[in-house]
Amino acid sequence: MNIPSAKNQRVVIIGGGFGGLNLAKGLRNKGFQVVLLDRHNYHAFQPLFYQVATAGLEPGSIAYPFRKIFSKYSDYYFRMANVLRIDTSARTVNTDIGTLPYDYLVIATGATTNFFGNKQLEQLCMPMKSISEALDIRSLMLQNLEKALLTNNADDKDSLMGIVIVGGGPTGVELAGALAELKKDILPKDYPDLDMRVMDIHLLDSNDRLLKAMSEKTSAKAQEALLSMGVDIRLGTRVTDYDGKEITTKSGEKLRAAMVIWAAGVKAAYPDGLPTESTSSGRILVDAFNRVKGLDQVFAIGDCAAMISEENPLGHPMMAQPALQQGALLADNLDRFRNGQQPVAFHYKNLGAMATIGRNKAVTELPGFNLYGWIAWVAWLFVHVAKLIGFRNKIVVMISWAQNYLSHSRDLRLIIRPFKR
Amino acid sequence: MNIPSAKNQRVVIIGGGFGGLNLAKGLRNKGFQVVLLDRHNYHAFQPLFYQVATAGLEPGSIAYPFRKIFSKYSDYYFRMANVLRIDTSARTVNTDIGTLPYDYLVIATGATTNFFGNKQLEQLCMPMKSISEALDIRSLMLQNLEKALLTNNADDKDSLMGIVIVGGGPTGVELAGALAELKKDILPKDYPDLDMRVMDIHLLDSNDRLLKAMSEKTSAKAQEALLSMGVDIRLGTRVTDYDGKEITTKSGEKLRAAMVIWAAGVKAAYPDGLPTESTSSGRILVDAFNRVKGLDQVFAIGDCAAMISEENPLGHPMMAQPALQQGALLADNLDRFRNGQQPVAFHYKNLGAMATIGRNKAVTELPGFNLYGWIAWVAWLFVHVAKLIGFRNKIVVMISWAQNYLSHSRDLRLIIRPFKR
After folding, report:
1. What is the DSSP string of B63-105?
2. Which among A35, B49, B134, B154 counts the fewest CB atoms within 10 Å?
3. Which of B58, B133, B174, B246 is catalytic?
């Protein structure tokens, strides 16, 4: 891989998401050689994927090249690579661009879409775990509307205009809200010859309420807001079958939709080569210092890691905050490990959760109090702009949002690369 | 195609580039039904493709959805379609989404990349006539640099870092300048382990000067500026062969480059079905009113049309201005034709030409006087922002340029969708 043999001990980080990138930043000036491996050459800001999918933001506004970040750090290396396997006895990482020895290895490979083993759903539903997949959703939505114009068959039109979102977590709720706004404000002007009453946006969840990680009051607020926007919410509903035109639920109901967005769950993703005792229920078992169970100098952080304790019998939630906090702490702990000092145990600090639903509508849970409506929405805007990486990105996102807000429009309804199955 | 049969006479426009879109806008409130057919659902601003290719602008900033423009007009229809054939006796257009009868047909299909029949070059060189192709150039440039890091073979490294631009017209000159700036300001920071002296940017042209459509003084100024930026300019040079790693010129020279951008020429593009006498040398013959030779109520404007006169034995130059002007005039003339009035003959008004080379460097030829350097560059900026469609696009492009200028950077060095041959 042409990385100079390290004077300093080498930390290899697999994955530059929230956890991996925060760790890399935290290791600066600590006297390590840092190598980051990622499939993409940029950090992607996942919480705003749904805005790319619904024509509100450009992909480049929520992506930031790793090399630009690392250009200011010394003894940092980035390589675009797919990691194939970890060899913990040889202490190497095997990738499609070669093999790399490590002194410390950190697995920060995040999570991928979970279709719970249903191959048919996997083949026909649209996931949204990468920028490319978000762009595919944008394209398919527009392609289906273009096709809907061409048919006089009511069932086909119904299907082409129908959208099913499976999963009522923050992603599903935010997508449903954004699509409902498109349907209300923009599509009737774009497609005056389509009857928009035919366009149904269905939000399905197998639980008995939306946003089940948040409080019941918050769920109720989100549900109320989405209902008022015309979203068809079906709780306690599981999808069993989909033929590309119509879904079937467990109770036998059928809903026509040529696009089904799958936001129903994620599962940890990690490379091959870990011993059996290091994983459980599809996640990597780590101790309070993010050390992988049974391995030496191998760590895992974020979605892929399960730090199980009495307090957290299932590990931490698979979201940005635990990854960010574990990345930051591990940077300091690696320094301590190397120097033979006592590491500091991880304690998750729940900073809250939020989901936006539409114009002036959001739900925000902060430690101690909740916000709803306009004030929650403003809080959501500020937090997301603040967390975006890159000055240009912050400015462009703010301008885009201001423009979208003032004009009730979203100008990025472009099919740059048509989606093909 | 589900377009209501027209109360008004139907004008079908094939192609929503500069010519077709300007015509569509000009027909507003003239009492026609207007149907625009285009492969894409957006108007693309071709003069800035090179900035998308060189990570300076996002694709969404230079694209604008047709439906957004048409949403304000009545009796206007857009259909995303590939036109397969024109049937001038039946007065229909055959497309991949059905057949459409016309009262007036306007062919505004522009031009496509001309490889002059060399299939090998066509297969391996990168054209830049669509946003998607511009993104492919951006991806391949970055993918090649990532690969260059991995090899110790000097020839392979030379090839992976080498870029050949074939064609010294405005596109080639602008690309060469933008790439030279990337090489100077950004890539050394992004790739500290690559020796950027190895990266050669070659600009080849078969003519004896760059920008041959402009004055000799302007050519000299552009050449001087590019030379000072380190571009290797080779005039009187033709490419005869390319194997994906190395090009061979007519004189037998070899230049290593894993990316060859083909900006050496365009040829008119138009659908099948025109009678032989209607075309010549690959363009559609039109009279002074843009009527296609030998046909009734069929028109052609812009790059695909050749309006040959004593004054213009080769027709007008294949660039934006003639297309825009012909589109505007034809809107009025169609009204005159329908009303039995005398149409007005087209006279091309040369508004000048410009090409930007880099920071504070451009060449601008206006009727009567030329501008060079900083003032030409400012003129270039203003003209391009003014011509962009969409308020959001103007703002985002201005912010992006300001940021690029102040930071000497371009943040969009993203490989969102890797280029695969």
Report:
1. EEEHHHHHTTSSSEEEEE--EEEEETTTTEEEETTEEEE-SEE
2. B154
3. B174
Search chain A and give the residue with CA nearest B148.
A2
CA angle B190, B172, B111 (to 5 degrees): 125
Q: Alpha-carbon distance B154 to B198, whole Å?
A: 9
SS3 A13: strand
Q: Report d(CA B400, CA B51) in Å as an integer.
A: 11
Contact B132 A393 (CB under 8 A): no
The 10 Å CB-count burial string (b at 16+, else e) for B149-161 is: bbeeeeebbbbbb
pTM of whole model > 0.90? yes
For residue A202, which phi and psi values (nearest 5 degrees)? -105, 135
Tell me whether residue B174 is one of the annotated catalytic residues. Answer: yes
CA-to-CA distance for B292 and B288, rounded, in angstroms?
Answer: 10
- Please report, for residues A138, A189, A245, B166, the alpha-carbon distance to residue A259 in angstroms, rounded to integers and kept in the order given: 11, 21, 8, 43
Q: In CATH, what class is B9-39+81-113+267-338?
A: alpha beta
Q: How far is CA B27 from the centre of its chain?
A: 24
Element (H, E) at B163: strand B163-166
Report whether A202 contacts A232 (CB < 8 A): yes
B357 neighbors B226 (Cβ within 8 angstroms): yes
Closest to A60 (Cβ–Cβ): which among B64, B146, B414? B414
pLDDT by residue (tens digit) across A179-188?
999 999 999 9
Domains B9-39+81-113+267-338 and B119-264 share a fold: yes
Distance CA B78, CA A32 (A): 58
What are the angstrom distances between the C-alpha of A49 and each of A103, A171, A173, A174? 35, 9, 13, 10
For residue A316, the model assigns a pLDDT of 94
Mean pLDDT of B119-140: 96
Per-residue pLDDT of A99-155, as tens digits, reads: 999 999 999 999 999 999 999 999 999 999 999 999 999 999 999 999 999 999 999
Cα–Cα distance for residue pair B20/B69, rounded to 1 Å: 13
Q: Do B393 and A403 touch (CB under 8 A)?
A: no
- Angle ∠(B395,B397,B401) on CA atoms, nearest 5: 120
Q: Is B167 left (phi over 0), alpha (psi -120 to 50) or beta?
A: left
Q: Which residues contact B44 (CB under 8 A, 6 or more apart)?
A: B17, B62, B63, B130, B131
- Please give the structure tokens belonging to residue A84: 């194939």
Q: B193 to chain A: which residues are within 8 Å by CB?
A: 2, 4, 77
Over range A218-246, report the average pLDDT.
96
CA dihedral B17→B19→B22→B26, nearest 10 degrees, is: -140
Q: So what's the architecture of B119-264 in CATH? A: 3-Layer(bba) Sandwich (3.50)
Please give the residue of chain B at the shortest CA–CA distance from A151. Answer: B2
Q: What is the pLDDT of residues A36-67, one digit of tens each?
A: 999 999 999 999 999 999 999 999 999 999 99
Residue A165 CA to its chain's centroid (Å): 15
Largest CA distance in chain B: 73
Query: What residues does each domain of chain B span?
Result: 9-39+81-113+267-338, 119-264
Pick the residue from chain B with its C-alpha nearest to A149. Answer: B2
Closest approach of A2 to chain B, Cα-based (Å): 6
Say whether A416 and B131 touch across the interface (CB within 8 A): yes
pLDDT digits (tens, 9 = 90+) for A382-416: 999 999 998 889 988 998 899 899 988 888 999 99
Instruction: Kindly tell me the number of DSSP H helices and DSSP E strands found in chain A.
Output: 12, 25
Nearest-CB residue to B416 (from A2, A67, A132): A132
CA B344 to chain centre: 28
Cβ-based contacts of B411 with chain A (< 8 Å): 60, 64-65, 68, 390, 392-393
